[in-house]
């Protein structure tokens, strides 16, 4: 029996490997996951939420370069390496975009950067030759340009991937836990239990998803984890309906009848015998739910009730810059939009590939 089961797994894996777009999507999702985890290591701006603002260089085109005067702060952030890698660096330093600078008599004279051919204000600060914390100048390149607040767009995109990626995992996990539990009870026991659960499912199903998410978000409050929970609580009905239908179709088969004859309890029959044999369609719908969760979160962020500033979110970035589409800088909204589209497409393609690989009839 175990050899046969192993061979079916190998057959499904071989069928999946033959699907080019499925394999490509898998590696793309792994890449996005890696970026999400180590976003602050990769991002040029590793400050928390990539939120280093420079209003004087707002909305600059990709490849923009500027000299940045960095005045180190004497404050000690007391941050661990783990905290810096996974949650960003608390940057107390002052960064000032400048167009020119010179050093005279232990004083650094600099001209602040100004756009549109204007000349910025000329200022100076005292420095000491032996001052290890003295100011210094670095050339900084914004490879994807800057947003309307002068923040590095590339860094915001990389950090924003974390929300879009992890909301899929959290929302799908919540939907699987609730959906499999409710669907198993309804499908296995039937009768009044099935009637009550189906009534709950139909009521939940009749409410528009976005409206239900907004209501739950407002009840739980605006925030990062509240959105994750709200999206997960609206996606369990699809899982429950699929699990219910699958269990109803297999609960009278011989292996279930044999398990009952051997005296096994209902819990063991459901978890050890039925669920392992009906997980193929659940896996497929979970991949589709990943994509749906990303789209819902982006819509909530666009409406302003998703991840709150200064957190980076692709949906919020579109909201902040959609008016730039007609102001000659459409890439500020198009780039995060393309990121959402690419990640959603990857999950849909891998869902189709899993459906084909797990289809025993093909």
Automatic annotation (TrEMBL):
The keyword Phosphoprotein does not apply. It is a multi-pass membrane protein. Keywords: Cell membrane, Membrane, Transmembrane, Transmembrane helix, Transport. This is ABC transmembrane type-1 domain-containing protein. The keyword Transmembrane applies. PANTHER family: D,D-DIPEPTIDE TRANSPORT SYSTEM PERMEASE PROTEIN DDPC-RELATED, OLIGOPEPTIDE TRANSPORT SYSTEM PERMEASE PROTEIN APPC. It comes from Yeosuana aromativorans. One of its GO terms (biological process) is transmembrane transport. Its main location: membrane. The chain crosses the membrane at residues 20-43, 163-189, 196-218, 224-243, 274-296, 331-354. Residues 161-351 form the ABC transmembrane type-1 domain. Belongs to the binding-protein-dependent transport system permease family. GO terms for cellular component: plasma membrane. It is found in: Cell membrane.
């Amino acid at each position: 029996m175990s050899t046969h089961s192993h061979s079916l797994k190998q057959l499904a894996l071989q069928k999946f490997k033959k699907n080019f777009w499925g394999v490509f999507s898998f590696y793309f999702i792994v890449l996005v996951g890696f970026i999400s985890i180590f976003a602050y290591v990769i991002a040029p701006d590793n400050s928390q939420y990539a939120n280093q603002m420079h209003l004087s260089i707002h909305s600059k085109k990709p490849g923009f370069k500027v000299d940045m005067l960095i005045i180190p702060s004497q404050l000690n952030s007391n941050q661990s390496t783990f905290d810096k890698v996974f949650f960003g660096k608390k940057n107390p330093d002052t960064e000032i975009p400048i167009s020119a600078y010179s050093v005279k008599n232990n004083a650094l004279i600099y001209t602040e950067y100004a756009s549109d051919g204007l000349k910025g204000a000329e200022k100076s600060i005292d420095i000491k030759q032996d001052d290890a914390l003295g100011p210094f100048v670095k050339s900084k390149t914004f490879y994807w340009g800057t947003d309307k607040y002068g923040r590095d767009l590339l860094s915001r995109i990389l950090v924003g991937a974390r929300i879009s990626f992890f909301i899929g995992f959290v929302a799908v996990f919540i939907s699987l836990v609730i959906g499999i539990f409710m669907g198993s009870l309804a499908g296995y026991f039937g009768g009044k239990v099935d009637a009550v659960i189906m009534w709950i499912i139909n009521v939940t199903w009749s409410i528009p998803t976005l409206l239900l998410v907004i209501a739950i978000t407002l009840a739980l409050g605006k925030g990062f984890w509240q959105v994750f929970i709200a999206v997960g609580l609206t996606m369990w009905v699809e899982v429950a309906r699929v699990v219910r239908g699958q269990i109803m179709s297999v609960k009278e088969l011989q292996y279930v009848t044999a398990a009952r004859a051997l005296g096994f309890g209902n819990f063991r029959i459901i978890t050890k015998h039925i669920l392992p044999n009906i997980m193929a369609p659940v896996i497929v719908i979970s991949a589709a739910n990943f994509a749906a969760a990303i789209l819902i979160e982006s819509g909530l962020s666009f409406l302003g009730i998703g991840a709150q500033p200064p957190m980076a979110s692709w949906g919020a970035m579109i909201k902040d810059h959609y008016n730039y589409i007609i102001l000659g800088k459409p890439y500020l909204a198009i780039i995060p939009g393309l990121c959402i589209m690419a990640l959603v497409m990857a999950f849909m393609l891998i869902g189709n590939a899993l459906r084909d690989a797990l289809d025993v009839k093909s």
